[in-house]
Amino acid sequence: MDRVSRGQLKEFVLSFVKHIEDAVSQYLNAELIFPEYMRHPHRIACIISEKNGVAIEFVERSKNWEITVRKTDKRIEECVLHKLSNNSERGFFVINGEFTRIENVNLVTKEFYDLFKDIIDCLFKSTTFVMEKPILFVRVNAGSVKLVDVGIAYVKNGQRIVRRIGFLWLIGTSTKEYYTKEMAIQHATLETRRYLDALIPKIPVTILVKALQEFEELLHEEDIDEPEMQEFLKDHPYFLWMGYESVESKPRLSEDLVPDFIIKTPGGEYIIVELESPKKRLFTSGKFIPEHKHLKDAKAQIEGYLNYIRNNIEYMRSWRYSDMKAEKVHGLLIIGLSTSLTSEERDRLKQLNAELKNYEVRTYDELADRLKQFLENLGVKYGPFG
């Protein structure tokens, strides 16, 4: 495969920062929600490794976005985080999966810690990891990792070195297929949503209630269709899966196969999501309540996605989802409305889901019911839903 060029990497990074810039500019209280690297232009240093991938570091604030790219024959981790020793230990963290994140921690060598133990224990508020004679602070075997607000400290040639990393993105591939505008936007969207979704246990119960109201209003619109639901769920992915690790919108599995979302859970499960219109029917009248053509076609589509992934799992692992396992790939088909079903059809849907092995079928109003239940578990009284 061809390696990403300097120009393509610059365009990739520029798409990433511009998408974040546009998203953050919509919030009046952005200073309170988002970190500095998402709110201000920075000087960004990029490295393309001949051995194992790409490094992208937001070095310091700048008047305008400044992106430089250089190439190296060293590993990217050695270039940006320093090679510490030739010891047999591998490092503080070994990265094998996509969308990994290390945030708000300190990585300190044992030699440095022994020198400043009292100060470190007293002043460091972040979690501190200490290791004796590591090779690297982080080793990227596959996938990618973002280091956000991470401190590193070590001793080199008798000199004590302390460094704070605001944002450093290490990607374990340099193949040009990865560095598309679409992938940059997916990462930027995920980066923005992480900070918004982190507020859920704190302030944004009101945001959840407002989202529920907007969602139910959408479902009651006569001309609502799949694209509108796709856009809404892209902005509110917790309707799909509460506590997700990452959500990708419109990921391209192949030239012809593009599901609506791929969700990664903290447990390493991958959920392939297919959306159909809320107006589509699930069943028809008749003995044993047969499936409607709408449902049959939708089932065939998500089964096609799942079969493709399982039949090409090695390709999927080598290309983007390095920690993906065939037995941990499942599907979620969302179609129709429960309110349009008879009691017999609801029972039929329960029976259908009990029979399905690799995916489940849910209606759009069931997504709202899940979020309502979440709020109820928090003891929240919420307006028209109470």
Word description of this protein:
- It is a single chain.
- This protein has 386 residues and is α/β, with parallel strands linked by helices.
- Helices cover 37% and strands 24% of the residues.
- It folds into two domains: 6-176, no CATH class; 202-385, 3-Layer(aba) Sandwich (Trna Endonuclease, Chain: A, domain 1), CATH 3.40.1350.10.
- It has helices at 6-24, 30-33, 36-39, 76-81, 110-123, 181-197, 205-219, 226-235, 293-311, 313-319, 343-355, 364-377; strands at residues 42-49, 53-61, 66-72, 93-95, 100-103, 105-109, 127-131, 138-140, 144-156, 159-171, 246-249, 261-264, 270-275, 329-334, 359-362.
- Strands 1, 2, 3, 5, 6, 7, 9 and 10 form an eight-stranded mixed beta sheet that branches. Strands 11-12-13-14-15 form a five-stranded mixed beta sheet. The chain has a two-stranded parallel ribbon with strand order 4-8.
- Strand 1 (42-49) and strand 2 (53-61) form a beta hairpin.
Question: Which features does this protein show?
Answer:
386 residues, alpha/beta, Trna Endonuclease, Chain: A, domain 1, five-stranded mixed β-sheet, 12 helices, disordered C terminus
What is the share of helical residues? 25-40%
CATH class of the largest domain: Alpha Beta
Class by helix and strand content? alpha/beta
Q: Count all strands and give the number.
A: 15
Unreliable spans are 382-386
Question: What is the count of helical runs?
Answer: 12
The H-and-E topology, N to C, reads as HHHEEEHEEEHEEEEHHHEEEHHEHEH
> Roughly what fraction of the amino acids lie in strands?
15-25%
Principal-axis shape equals elongated
Distance between the termini: 56 Å
Can you name the CATH architecture of the largest domain?
3-Layer(aba) Sandwich
Number of structural domains: 2
Average of pLDDT? 86
Q: How would a textbook summarize the main sheet?
A: 8 strands, mixed
Q: How big is the Rg?
A: 24 Å
CATH domain fold name of the largest domain: Trna Endonuclease, Chain: A, domain 1
